[in-house]
Design goal:
This protein is of the alpha/beta class and 140 residues long. The protein is built from two helices and eight strands; from the N terminus they run E-H-E-E-E-E-H-E-E-E. The termini are far apart. The longest helix has 12 residues. It has a four-stranded mixed β-sheet with strand order 1-4-3-2, with helices on one face. Strands 5-8-7-6 form a four-stranded mixed β-sheet, covered by helices on one side. It has two domains: 58 residues, Signal recognition particle alu RNA binding heterodimer, srp9/1 (2-Layer Sandwich); 67 residues, Signal recognition particle alu RNA binding heterodimer, srp9/1 (2-Layer Sandwich). The protein is globular, with a radius of gyration of 16 Å.
Amino acid sequence: MMAELTVRPQPLIAVTDVETSSRWYQRLLGCDSAHGGPEYERLVANGSLILQLHHFAIEHHHGRIGNPADKPYGNGVLLWFEVDDFDSAMARVAEMKANIVMPRHRNPPSGDGGPNHWECWLRDPDGYIVVLASPDGSAG
């Protein structure tokens, strides 16, 4: 029998300006900086790592994370965050005048099944798609 495996996602994205992206995500998600600086950032919520930001041009010991000329960044990848208070998150989105790709909508649009939650799709300062979602079952 296999031992129980605990998995915690720790996504990392390459960005053009770590400090600007850090402030954007902190404001959007209500999270905190756990590192800071122009090269690398760790963002945490309730003590748990939720996102890492790494400058495109910094190689550290591993080489470059990505090529800033290859756009759109994150093609085919969505940064998806479930938020407990979706309405407060939507108020922050409005205050930030965030670039909205798909405004608040129910998933699925109608009927039963699926997550039955609210979503809003946006673009971060580098153009990555970020999805905010309410908890499953919360759309009524």
